[in-house]
Prior knowledge:
Blueprint: E1 16-21, E2 24-29, E3 32-38, E4 42-50, E5 56-63, E6 66-72, H1 75-90
Antiparallel strand pairs: 1-2, 2-3, 4-5, 5-6
Amino acid sequence: MSDAHENPRQERPQIVSVRMEYAALKVRFGNTTHLRIASNKLIGHQSWREGYGTRKFVIEYMTTAGTIRSEYDTEEKWKAILAGLDAALDEPI
Length: 93
């Protein structure tokens, strides 16, 4: 029996995975690749919160070719990616 107050458009939580795979850093949401950077091109990353009210959660990836800026809409997604980056980048390549 369905609840009359359920939101039929409510999104399922996305499973975030971050790993070093085939000499590349890969960030995935479910089965979709969000970001792929060759490990020999990655210099580092930084992150911060931006804005008031409507907040953005930012991660910048510094590469030998320039900077890639990713903005996320939820703090949970941002924290999951940061935790995955810590784990993936601590692993030996």
